[in-house]
C-alpha cells in the first residue's frame, strides 16, 4: 500500500516543478527538502505485519499506526492506532468488514463463523481508542467528529479490496452511526450495509432531545473532554457478561460493565451526525437494519433486560431508517436486546437468517438465487 509519505513527497516534487517554471530555473534539491521528506516519512500512517491476535485464538491482527494523529494534550505523548482483525488470509472474492459499537471491541467469534459459512472472508476493526487500539492514557472512545475514523476505515477498505472483489459493511450501535455516514461518503465502494441497532437518533423525551444539542455544543467548546455527570447504569453490561446474567465472556477492561464516560466533544460529534442523517444520506447500496421489537427502561435487573433494547428508543430509530438510502429493509425481532447478535440463541438465529435471506436477495442477485434453488431441488 502506498503510504501518505509518498503522496506528500510527490506533492513536494510538483511544487518544485511549478516554481521552476515560474522562475525559469530548475530548482535543485536542498538539505531542507531532504529533512522535510524524512520528517514526512516518519509521520506517515502505515501498516504493521499480520500477527497472531492476542485476544482471540485462531485470528490474526494487524496494526495501523497514525503518527500524523497525535494524542490530545491530556492523553500524554504518542499517537493513535487502529487494529484490523481477520479470521485467516484471503480465500474468497467477497469480504465483510465489521465495525463495533460504543464501549466495545471485536470478540464475537460466532459473528465471524457466520460470515465464513456464508462465503465471506471476515474482518473486524477496533477503531482508535477502542479495544485492541486503546492505549494507556487515552480517553476511551473519544472522537470530535465521526469523520475522525475515515482515515483508518479507508486504510482497512483499501487493504481488504486488494484481495477481494466485493466488500460489505456490518456495524452495531454507534458503529452503525459511523458506518452510515462513511458508506454514504464512499459511493460505489460497497455492495451492502447491515446495521444492528444503529444509533441514528437521540433517545429521550422531546424536551431532552431539544435541549441536548444546545447544552452540548456550548460545553464542547468550553470543556470538550470533561466527564459528563450522567450517572452509572450497568444493566446492559450485566445482561451480557458471564460473571453476571449473561452468556458471553470478554475482556472487562476493554468492554466495561458500566458505560465509558461521556464527554461533550464526543456527544457533539454524535449530535452533528444525527443532524446529518436527518437531512437524508442517499446511500447507494442495499441496507438491512435490524432492531428489537421494543425498548424498555428498567431501573434494576429484570427479564425486560433480556428481551428488549434498554439502550436505544427503537421506535424513534425505526422512523429514521428510510433516511439512510434508496433501498432499505427493516427487520424487527421480538425478544432481542440492543445487540441482536448477543441476544438469546433463538433471537440471534433469527437475525442471522434474516441476514442470509437479505444477502441472497439483494447482494448476490438472481443468478445466485437460481443456484441455491437448484441445490435445494
CATH H-level superfamily of the largest domain: Alpha/Beta hydrolase fold, catalytic domain
Annotated CATH topology of the largest domain: Rossmann fold
Q: Tell me, what is the CATH class of the largest domain?
A: Alpha Beta
Q: Based on DSSP secondary structure assignment, what is the total number of beta strands? A: 10
Which class of secondary structure composition applies to the elements? alpha/beta
Order of helices and strands: HHEEEEEHEHEHEHHHEHHEHH
Mean pLDDT: 87
Strand % is 15-25%
Reported CATH architecture of the largest domain:
3-Layer(aba) Sandwich
Overall outline? globular
Can you count the helices? 12
Low-confidence stretches: 1-23
Q: What is the rounded distance between the termini?
A: 45 Å
Largest sheet: 10 strands, mixed
Number of domains: 2
- Rg computed from alpha carbons, rounded to a whole number of angstroms: 22 Å
Q: How helical, in percent, are the residues?
A: 25-40%
Description:
38% of the residues lie in helices and 16% in strands. With 377 residues, it is α/β, with parallel strands linked by helices. The chain has two domains: 4-42, no CATH class; 45-376, Alpha/Beta hydrolase fold, catalytic domain (Rossmann fold). Strands 1, 2, 3, 4, 5, 6, 7, 8, 9 and 10 form a ten-stranded mixed sheet that branches. Helix 5 packs across helix 8 (264-278). It starts with a helix and ends with a helix. 36% of the residues are buried. Mean pLDDT is 87; it is low at 1-23.
Amino acid at each position: 500500500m502506498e503510504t501518505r509519505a509518498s503522496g506528500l513527497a510527490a506533492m513536494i516534487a510538483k511544487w518544485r516543478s511549478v516554481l521552476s517554471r515560474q522562475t525559469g530555473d530548475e530548482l535543485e534539491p536542498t538539505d531542507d527538502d531532504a529533512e522535510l521528506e524524512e520528517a514526512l516519512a516518519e509521520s506517515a500512517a502505515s501498516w504493521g505485519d499480520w500477527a497472531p491476535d492476542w485476544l482471540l485464538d485462531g485470528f490474526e491482527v494487524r496494526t495501523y499506526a497514525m503518527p500524523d494523529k497525535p494524542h490530545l494534550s491530556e492523553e500524554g505523548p504518542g499517537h493513535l492506532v487502529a487494529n484490523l482483525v481477520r479470521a485467516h488470509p484471503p480465500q474468497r472474492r467477497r469480504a465483510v468488514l465489521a465495525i463495533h459499537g460504543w464501549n466495545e471491541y471485536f470478540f464475537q467469534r460466532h459473528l465471524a463463523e457466520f460470515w465464513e459459512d456464508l462465503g465471506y472472508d471476515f474482518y473486524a476493526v477496533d477503531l482508535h481508542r477502542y479495544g485492541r487500539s486503546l492505549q494507556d492514557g487515552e480517553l476511551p472512545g473519544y472522537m470530535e467528529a465521526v469523520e475522525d475514523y475515515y482515515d483508518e476505515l479507508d486504510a482497512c477498505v483499501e487493504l481488504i479490496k486488494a484481495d477481494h472483489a466485493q466488500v460489505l459493511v456490518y456495524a452495531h450501535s454507534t458503529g452503525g452511526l459511523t458506518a452510515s455516514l462513511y458508506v454514504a461518503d464512499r459511493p460505489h465502494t460497497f455492495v451492502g450495509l447491515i446495521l444492528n441497532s444503529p444509533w441514528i437518533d437521540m433517545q429521550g423525551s422531546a424536551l431532552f432531545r431539544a435541549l441536548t444539542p444546545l447544552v452540548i455544543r456550548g460545553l464542547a467548546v468550553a470543556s470538550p473532554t470533561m466527564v459528563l455527570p450522567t450517572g452509572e447504569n450497568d444493566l446492559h453490561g450485566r445482561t451480557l457478561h458471564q460473571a453476571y446474567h449473561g452468556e458471553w465472556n470478554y475482556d472487562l477492561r476493554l468492554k466495561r460493565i458500566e458505560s465509558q464516560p461521556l464527554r461533550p466533544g464526543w456527544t457533539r460529534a454524535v449530535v452533528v451526525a444525527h443532524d446529518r442523517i436527518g437531512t437524508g444520506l442517499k446511500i447507494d447500496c442495499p441496507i438491512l437494519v435490524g432492531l428489537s421489537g421494543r425498548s424498555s427502561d428498567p431501573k434494576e435487573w429484570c427479564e425486560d433486560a433480556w428481551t428488549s433494547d434498554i439502550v436505544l428508543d427503537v421506535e424513534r430509530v425505526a422512523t429514521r431508517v428510510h433516511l439512510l438510502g434508496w433501498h432499505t429493509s427493516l427487520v424487527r425481532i421480538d425478544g432481542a436486546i440492543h445487540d441482536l447478535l448477543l441476544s438469546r440463541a433463538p433471537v440471534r438465529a433469527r437475525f442471522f437468517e434474516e441476514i442470509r435471506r437479505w444477502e441472497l436477495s439483494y447482494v448476490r442477485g438472481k443468478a445466485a438465487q437460481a443456484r441455491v434453488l437448484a441445490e435445494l431441488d
